[in-house]
Amino acid sequence: MKFRATLTERGCQSLHKAFLPTLEKFGKTCHILLGPDEVFFIQRAVDADGANVTVRFTAERMFNTESFRVASRHFNLVAFAVDVGLLLKVLRSAVTNAPDTLDVKLTQCAVALPGCDEVENKPFLCFTARGDGVSLVQELPIGKPCPSGEIDALVAAKDVASLCPWYLDLASGAGAAGLARVVDRMKALSSSMQVALCKTGDLHIQVAENSVMLGALFSGLTVYPQDASKQPEPEEGRQLTAEEKLQEALQAGDAMTVHIQVKHLLKILSVSTLSQPSRILFGIAEGCGHVHVMFVYRDPSTEAAYDDSLTLGFKLPVRDED
Amino acid sequence: MDIDSNDEQEQEHEEEEQQLPPVHLTLSNIRSLTTLLQAMKISAKQACTVVLAPEGVELHWADDSKSLRSSLQLRSELFSSYECGPPRRVFGVAMLQLVDALAVFASASSAAPLQLHYPGPDGELQLELSDSGDAVDVDGGGAGCVMYARIATQEQDLPSDMTDYWREPASYFLLKGALLKEAVDDLEWPGGSVAIRLSRDPPALSMAAAGTGSLEVHLSAADLSGVQVAEPQVQQRYRYKNMKASMCHIPDGKEVGGPVSTKVSIDANGLLKVTHMVPLAGGRAPGGGSATGQQQASMQPSALSGFAATQAALDSSRLGVVQFVSLPVDEED
């Protein structure tokens, strides 16, 4: 089992400025899954209070390709758990004190066990930062590298089996900040909420608790893919209430609805400010088994509609319908 | 509450029971209502009583000990549209839920109009806020946010009106609500009940509390106006909890249409009535309007001086009113 690489400046920046802080908001630990083409940071439901969080980088975005080596007996995949906060500290320290280059290597060190004479080989990620005549070495303890069964489980956990039929962009319309403000206040009323997505670009959210039912309709959101979208019916002569619109859309098969935890949606909206995605795609899986949220990024230096080298995805559990 | 089903039978029954025309009100700025509710600052789970009357909207609440009663009043002129024919509707709603629901609405938009409908299909109170705002979608489409809420109501009578027992002669004075708030805030640290002492000649007001320490706050005559003292000296004690509830939660003048002015009255038996007049923005053009009652009558400009006269001259229909009535206590309980 082998891993060594030199981080690109861009990769290092993305990690310590945006993505490690994002992961930290969800949980203390994450798994790093390394392969010849891609690097994943994965938080499973048990790590992230029910949500499933995956950050994916292409290898060339994260590492200098000439010096990047990863090898193992299981498809050259290497995976292990790390403490997100500690990793973040290591990167910040490297960037502050010796910012020119940052090398990382998977190593084993003999560590004395406390209270006895034995030593054990423990795995570490060894970071060497260089800059301005300074060389800084930091050793980050990590979990034991995962056996092949666990690697396969991680590979399965990191992806959704298939994309949702359609997605609404929460960053469009009135914007994620406005939605976050409303959801934040709704938290006071209930811990779970009903979310409905309509092909017309309408997002409905509802909470109900004791003697209050409260709902909001955010209209004018962009639908992806574009051919899934449906023009809203012209309203002349029929002033429908928000609730009536939702019922009609559900009956016509133009909407999907599930119950999710308010805290999950709120966390997703709040971390979006850390990495500034250009689109926040929110979708309900076929069969309403889960919710899939994708942060899509734009590379400002290219013409491309979106940056393929980087994605952040969330998979949220849904509550069984009553 | 079953949100999605449309129970036809129950609806018909409700309609039979209430062949009354529905009430539709629009408040041009939701802040008018949320500010007054904050001044009442009720965190208990009890229900409060809502009155929808042709003259305006009232909300009444009495605390557990029954020694404090609070109410707010929004006259019909403060609404941008007001459809409420007689008779007046009286019902109870859970106070906390109403406040939480309004907080969600206010978070979506600070200035959008709030619509109120009663009754809904299940006899509930329906609220709606519609904000098309200035938001324009990146793709150029229209974007908007509509919020709605349905709050279940229950049958409830008005809590007994303590001012039914109001006995003249009463002593009273007017001052800026903020001064009163400051004074009562300071009186928190000694603990114990608060004694209010009013002297006639020269006009003076002091408040004192003695518990783990003692503190006396004097308000100068220059801060007061319209002082009327029934005897050479009037002194009464009140629970600190009631004083704080009555005087310390008023909004800052910058949050509303101007500084809050407050009238404090003590009747012959020691009942304490604190009336805050909160200037609010918005509403329809000032009209004649019927007199609201005793507190207006005693505010004739000729009887007042200084800023109070200006306050009285302010169109009374632009004021939201929050009022507290407390029972006195005997020496330290």
Structural account:
The complex is a heterodimer of chains A (322) and B (333). By secondary structure, chain A is an alpha+beta fold. Chain A has two domains: 2-157, Box (Proliferating Cell Nuclear Antigen); 167-317, DNA Polymerase III, subunit A, domain 2 (DNA Polymerase III, Chain A, domain 2). Helix content of chain A is 25%, strand content 40%. Chain A has seven helices and 18 strands. A nine-stranded antiparallel β-sheet of chain A has the order 6-2-3-4-18-17-16-10-14, with helices on both faces. In chain A, a hairpin with a 2-residue loop joins strand 3 and strand 4. The radius of gyration of chain A is 22 Å and the shape is elongated. The model of chain A has no long low-confidence stretch (mean pLDDT 90). Chain B is of the alpha+beta class and 333 residues long. Chain B has two domains: 2-154, Roll (DNA Polymerase III, Chain A, domain 2); 165-326, Roll (DNA Polymerase III, Chain A, domain 2). Helix content of chain B is 20%, strand content 34%. Chain B has seven helices and 18 strands. Chain B has helices at 8-17, 30-40, 95-108, 177-186, 240-247, 294-297, 306-313, and strands at residues 23-27, 47-53, 56-62, 68-75, 81-83, 89-94, 114-118, 125-131, 144-151, 171-176, 194-199, 204-210, 214-219, 225-228, 233-238, 261-266, 272-279, 319-326. Chain B has a nine-stranded antiparallel β-sheet with strand order 6-2-3-4-18-17-16-10-14, with helices on both faces. In chain B, strands 5-1-7-8-9 form a five-stranded antiparallel β-sheet. In chain B, strands 13-12-11-15 form a four-stranded antiparallel β-sheet. In chain B, helix 2 packs antiparallel against helix 3. The relative contact order of chain B is 0.16. The model of chain B is unreliable at 134-141 and 285-310 (pLDDT under 50). Classes of the chains: A alpha+beta (322), B alpha+beta (333). The interface between A and B is medium-sized, with 33 and 31 residues. Strand 13 of chain A pairs antiparallel with strand 9 (144-151) of chain B, so a sheet runs across the interface.
